[in-house]
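Q: How would the structure tokens look for this protein?
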Amino acid sequence: MIRAALPADVPEIHAMIRELAEYERELESARATEAQLHDALFGAEPAVFALIAEDNTTGAPVGFALWFRNFSTWTGTHGVYLEDLFVRPEARGGGHGKALLAALAAICVERGYERFEWAVLDWNEPSIGFYRSIGARSQDEWTVQRLTGEALRTLAHQADVNKAASLSN
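A: Here is the predicted structure in token form.
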């Protein structure tokens, strides 16, 4: 069963994020706290959303999808960006991943969103094969760019602080 996440799910979501980070060989980078997740998902202005996959027999959470809206200036519509998709190893092959993706595709269709996008590590062949099986296609002509840490702070220091603050309002 797929359902919307509830505030009580935050500890399980946090645990699964850490399990995903370990699988992706980046556990030390997973620094989000339960409090941060709770605020992002259920604060006054939620910035992200989550779905939970439950075991059909026990009702225990076995997977999650965390997503947010993006926007295409070309189509003039919002879309969904899937930040994380994770199904616990013991539940893989049970259709939970596909059910989570189908639920997100349904959100797109119901809301008139024209794109559903995500990234996958290039070495994650099982996931890539799964995504191909449902009709997803890679966008090989695009590369992801990212600023973090010192590079982010260095560029930020080049901004006119007063002007940057007024732009965010």
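The longest helix spans residues 96-111.

Strands lie at 2-4, 49-54, 61-72, 77-87, 115-118.

Upvote if useful.
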